[in-house]
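Re: that chain you flagged

S.,

Sorry for the slow reply, it's been a week of failed gels. I finally had a moment to sit down with the sequence you sent. For the record, here it is as I used it:
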Amino acid sequence: MSKSKQIIVRVQSAEHGTKRIESKPLETVAEFLNKVQKEFGLGDTGWNVYKSRDKKEWIRTSRAKTLETYKVKHGDMLFLLSSDRKQSNASIDSMSSGSGTSNITGDMGSVSISGSSMSSGSSQSVVEDEVDQILYKEDGKIYREKNEQLCRHGPQGKCLHCVPLEPYDEEFLKSCDPPIKFLSFHSHIRKLTGGVDRGKFVSLENLSCKIKPGCTEHPPWPGGICTKCQPNAVTLNRQRYRHVDYVMFENASIVDRFLNYWRRTGNQRLGIMYGRYEPHKDTPLGIKATVAAIYEPPQKSHKNVLQLLADPAEERVNRVADSLGVRPVGWIFTDLLAEDLSKGSVKHFRGNINSHFLSAQECIMAADFQNKYTNPCKLSPDGHFGSKFVTVVVTGDASNQIHFEGYQVSNQCMALVNDDCLIPTKDAPELGYIKESSEKQYVPDVFYKVKDSYGNEVTQLARPLPVEYLLVDMPAAFPLSAQYTFKAHLHTDAKLFPVEYRQEIGETQDYTSLSTYLQQFPPDRFLEAVSDFHLLVFLATSEIIPLKDSIVPLLEAVKTNDLDKAFQFMKCQEWATVEEIMAAHETSPRVQRETSYVGPGASPLPPIGSGAGAGLWTCAHCTYLNIPEKNACDMCSLPK
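Prediction finished late last night. Pasting the structure tokens below so you have them in one place:
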């Protein structure tokens, strides 16, 4: 039988009798259920369709699955049964495994996401991020003033020229300066749930490229595969929305401190950005990632490559961050090469016509991070959809200045990496490659569309794959007025506490460093002194004095800027022990080099302290900063 041929499916209801529904084998389940609803005159909720009367074969709505998926054939009898759900017009309960309606309310009234698809495909037990809860309640509409030239109504009226626009209005987004290229995620949701049907069959389903487990009709792969367990082929589409619309560093000191490693060594560096997600007012229903600190995990740094190592302190660092009201919001890495040391300029080799924005390996790493930090979402049957975790590259721009570029990879890229389908190519960093099926793994075909020399759209197999199909970009910059979650950055006259895992360049986190740092502050400024993410992580993870739960009051004092709690912590036994250890470590004169700006590509960002230690000399060949006693460069071994 042709799959495009019309079939008749009988649907029986105890209240309405039996009706015949015209359909096709390849018609989606969502389309079929729409016909059932219209034919029986049903509401949005309170009913489901089953293949048997005992409710064991529930036909769940889906825009991906078809009637053929459920083996519904010509002449089959389906059963329309009540979901035993009581509702009232005044209140609508939370969704359960049966039908239901979830209301997103705001000043504009109620926008419903209803129907059996959302009740079967949503996770109401999921606790979404605070920023999402805020944006769900917002109106989101774009309000316009009365146009004196075009409007012909009174001050209380509205017409086509001044009526509020939806947050996903394309013409408005294009007219912004600069134009907004991507919808915000919540604008995307409003677009899906708009229209006549109010998005009652919308379900945010995560892509899977794996064979569905549990199929008993054939031996496991590579012994066999069938249409029920075989994943569908994937056609890559450029993602039209983004989960985060802007990356904001609270102040220049945060990234200046991060970049000092490259200035000192010429080697690249990677960090985890800690901060929070907040509404972004410059984009309708937008979200921004606000960065308050950059933590540097264990890594091997070189001029052209970075290797991230396992971090034994990761869990404790995240607990400290949570107590301080911040969380991992993204990762940042440098790709810098000095051009002119006298001018402090850097080379521009990313994002131009002959290069790439992110390499395939960087896209895969970004996807790994995004899969690790998924976005909790009630509208997905998995309880998560996409990710807010961002990627920031520090590189040179067209004017040869240090520049910050923000990215995310698409949800499709996350799925390809999560299911181990995407690998980098050997010689072309701008190209990825979809693995071929093997005895160990079945990989579905992946395609992308391009225009040929005649302007025709043609489909290509993603072997290889331009990674630009996987990217979503966003701006990354600084606020007009600096912000300070951690107040230690306010004191540019003080030398900041050393950053973790920088022992190889002489920056060591120990009690001698702690004593030297705290001596710069009088006792009445103790709270300001300890308001430093790196210092607090050191205290919380120190093996000499495990503060454990005793540090919680100090973290709370920093979070709330509470002087009384900070002074109470100074009186506790644990801190007295820390002071005794600091007193035992006599501070010896040593070169403090973390504020040195004599290095490759010095940034125009404001300095965080005074100049380099006296007597240091810069290698004329590789620009490495050496101590006075050395007559040959530690980096390249060439003579002074």
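What I noticed first: The chain has 15 helices and 29 strands.

Talk soon,
D.
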